[in-house]
Design goal:
Number of helices: 9
Distance between the termini: 39 Å
Radius of gyration: 21 Å
CATH topology of the largest domain: Gyrase A, domain 2
Strand content: 25-35%
Structural class: alpha+beta
Shape: globular
Number of strands: 21
Length: about 375
């Protein structure tokens, strides 16, 4: 398929890897952060097995970076998130939530600290560049907020470490989980972090020169061939197994951290006055009325992930919604993330899911569904 046959107009941006992914078999794209992302390299089940058995390379340039620099950068970044960043070292990454004044989640990015006053916010799918610039206007803080020329790739799977070693040498094996390193490959400037959206061992490779996208993709694929590396896309199967959120699906502006069980990402005791602190304090003291749960859905294997929210009922009354669902070939069952009232958020409770094929029984289950301690990613 020719690259020009995908087209919504110039307002949908193409990544520096776009042409390479089409050459390597990308057959379909979605739009994320106003940009194309490959979502189809053939069979999604095969993509899953490639990921969990060997390794896949994914174009995730849609994870746009918001770069925050200036003398007050650290103070400003702490304003954006309820997670305590006071001990965040240069070279460290943290999974954070960005909340609004009501405690609603605007994004759940990875924060990278490149230097004392140099941060990147590596985004999920929402316009945090505009939010951050707006927050800065009347903050009285001396910061500069831009979108840099940075485009990440994800190299994920159990053999990703061997591929990184072949690319960068033995030193890269010292890179710890959720830490980053500045590095070059064939003169191409990169940041490499031990992070990813797969719950497997994995790395993100942040290209700092968009003109080198094609060269970087081809170099990694050529080196990875001996290790079973395949081009791929972020796996809905694996991320739902791992209980990982997809923004706009499992969380949105009307979802708060406590509903998702992400209390660990909120520190109400720190001195910093982050946006949403009063609201989150109130929510914590009052308690939440709904919670995210895992579900096992008792039906024929789903043909793909859900493309709409499925209603959850109990005794014929609507009580909640399925936000992400997929068939896991490894677990041999349909697994889902869902939002239900707290009185239904108990392991083993039965509910009904109104699927396109009709009402189906489902059971509330533990999440993550696989490797709950994240031993694979942290190893």
């Amino acid at each position: 398929m020719h690259a020009d046959s995908f087209g919504f107009g110039t307002q949908i941006r193409k990544s520096p890897y776009f042409d390479a992914t089409v050459r390597w078999g990308a057959q379909g794209f979605s739009v994320y952060n106003h940009m194309y992302i490959p979502r189809d390299f053939g069979d999604p089940e095969q993509n899953f097995w490639n990921l969990v058995n060997d390794a896949i390379l994914c174009d995730v340039a849609v994870e746009r970076q918001v770069e925050i620099t200036g003398p007050d950068a650290a103070t400003f970044v702490q304003m954006l998130t309820p997670r305590d960043l006071s001990k965040m070292a240069v070279g460290q990454c943290k999974y954070v939530l960005i909340t609004n004044a009501e405690g609603g989640i605007l994004n759940d990015p990875i924060l990278l600290r490149l230097a004392e006053n140099h941060f990147w916010i590596s985004l999920a799918d929402s316009d945090i560049l505009l939010w951050a610039q707006g927050v800065a206007v009347h903050s009285g803080l001396d910061v500069t907020i831009t979108e840099p020329d940075v485009s990440p790739l994800q190299l994920q799977g159990p053999r990703s470490g061997e591929i990184m070693q072949a690319l960068f040498g033995d030193d890269i094996l010292d890179l710890r989980y959720y830490w980053l390193r500045e590095i070059e490959l064939d003169g191409i400037p990169l940041i490499v972090s031990r992070t990813g959206w797969s719950s497997e061992l994995g790395y993100e490779i942040y290209l700092r020169d968009g003109a080198s996208g094609d060269a970087l993709w081809e170099r990694i694929m050529a080196t990875g061939m001996d290790y079973g590396l395949k081009p791929g896309h972020t796996s809905s199967i694996r991320r739902i197994e791992g209980g990982m959120l997809s923004y706009h699906a499992d969380a949105d502006i009307n979802t708060n951290p406590y509903e998702l069980g992400l209390d660990r990402l909120v520190n109400l005791d720190m001195e910093a006055d982050f946006i949403g602190k009063a609201a989150l304090r109130r929510i914590q003291s009052e308690g939440v009325s709904r919670k995210q749960v895992g579900l096992i859905i008792d039906s024929e294997p789903l043909k793909g992930p859900n493309t709409s929210f499925w209603t959850i009922t109990s005794n014929g009354t609507e009580i909640g919604k399925v936000t992400s669902a997929v068939y896991s070939p490894r677990l041999e069952r349909n697994i889902a993330l869902a939002m239900v009232p707290v009185e239904f958020a108990h392991i083993g409770m039965g509910v009904d899911v109104v699927m396109p094929s009709g009402p189906t029984r489902a059971t509330v289950a533990e999440r993550p569904f696989y490797d709950p301690k994240k031993k694979l990613a942290v190893a």
